[in-house]
Amino acid sequence: MNLVNLKAGKAPDNAEGRSDCVRSTLTVGSAQICLTLPKGRPVSAPQNIRGAGTTMAPDPTIPQVTMTLAALAATGATPRPSGETLEQQTKRIITGVNAQLSDRSLATQGAWELVWLALSEANANMAYLARSTNGSNEFAVVARGTDADPTDILEDLDVGTVVPFPESGSPKPINVSKGAKDAFTRVVTARSIASPSPNATLAQALSVALKAAPSSPQPTVYLTGHSLGGCIATMLAPYLQAQTWPKQPKFAVITYAAPTAGVQSFVDYFNSVPWVIDERQNNAYDLVPHAWADLDTTAGWYPSPGPQATEEVKLLIGTISKRTKGNVYVQPGTLRLMNTEYTSLAKNLVNKTTQDFLGQVAFQHANSTYLDLVGAPPVPSPPVVTDMTPTFGAAGATVTINGNGFSQDSMVDFGHFACTERKVDPSGRRITAQVPNGTGVVHVRVTNTLGTSPAIAMGQFAYGGPAPVVVSAVSPTSGKVGTPVTIGGSGFANGATVHFKDKASGSVRFTSTNQITATAPDQLDVHQTVNITVTVGKATSPTSPADEFTYTGR
């Protein structure tokens, strides 16, 4: 891409500068939400990037390329469950990022190469530096953000305290949140512990890269990231801009779903600095950029077809919004809103339940959704486990793990125990594994250079048995009192009880360990959405959007 002669676009007429902040943990019970993310309608600014390849399109847009670079930062974000050193995880991430940067089917079209990558201690933050290989003399500094799990969307950073940010180069004192400053400090002090630039900080690696770069065209450095990565990028930008370089580059900032780092003084200085581009691309129905000044407005979401916030959600949003302790956070840069008509949504998460609301929050914030909104091809996904059989047994037993994205280098973990004997089917959809030593009920997860599969209820293994009880589907998903409902899952047994919310079904018919039919019992409120749970002995299935049933009357 080549932005040397391009300028930032104008914000939509209805775009307002929103006060935002940094991440915070949002916790609601212990429910696990597993999403299948449907595609939405691409919406993007018509800005072209010159100089890239031709696999995807002659001229991919600025958002398509930079959002792809931002999404690649999520590669290998989760350490292997059985454990790996920071160096092992760093090398795994580098391998995965390199493979994706060379993929010509992505918006980056194979026209970038990795220069530097570092993880901070305890895997708290990650950033990488890449350079173009198409003669455009461009560099990208990319910071990693949060993942799509609802409990991690707003990571708990200290927004109740603001601190000075002298590294910005501002001649006047400016303030940012303490949490954002801590994250920034971890990124700029992190040293890579693996090639291609071992034992170097970001600034050192960029200096070496610029020194080796040609003088013409003038180098351009892009700062980008998704979620917290975007927040950190807005701090890295003035920090790098303030320094002297072997060949002074131009700087551009384009962020996605980014909460802001600071208060008005930070924004005033940021907006006074000359940028080639300074845009923040936000999904209009992404909750994260609304934290913290107007987070309360999200309690009125979502428009038809939903989901609508429950009282539990409203209470949580109200509680979280008070964490600023009176500090007023403001967003820097030019706002570009996408998905303003709410046409991109997870259509299987529209019921008025806490789980559906948090699931929709996760979908609207996800890297994959933002890639789709800007019209970029999806980046390769980490492995996904869909189910396994058998789901109980002893160490040494053989199990079959089903899913997708399995590669020959895939590693399998049963909880915190590594599986040493495994065979990956050439289809990439099945792994035969020997159960390692372990105890209790554990999640079986698969890891390769692209990442680790999420923990899911259908991917549990119980040492010694009985099989974990899981509800994975109900049919129909709505009906009147007395409707027979077929329940699919695992671990079912004759004599199981079925509850619709807290009401036991009076008619339960056991078909198999994977299927039960139960009649919807009467409720005080017969126009609500409830969770269906199955209890076998002392074990009860965990709740999820997959077990929801909506009453439509008597």
Share of helix among residues?
Answer: 10-25%
Largest sheet: 7 strands, mixed
> Counting H and I runs of at least 4 residues, what is the number of helices?
9
Low-confidence stretches: 1-55, 148-155
- Provide the β-strand percentage band: 25-35%
What would you note in describing this structure?
The protein has 554 residues and is of the alpha+beta class. The chain is built from nine helices and 29 strands. The strands form six sheets. It has a seven-stranded mixed sheet with strand order 1-2-3-6-7-8-9, sandwiched between helices. Strands 11, 13, 14, 17, 18 and 19 form a six-stranded mixed sheet that branches. Strands 21, 23, 24, 27, 28 and 29 form a six-stranded mixed sheet that branches. Strand 7 (250-256), helix 6 and strand 8 form a beta-alpha-beta unit.
Short description:
The protein has 554 residues and is α+β, with helices and mostly antiparallel strands. Helices cover 19% and strands 25% of the residues.
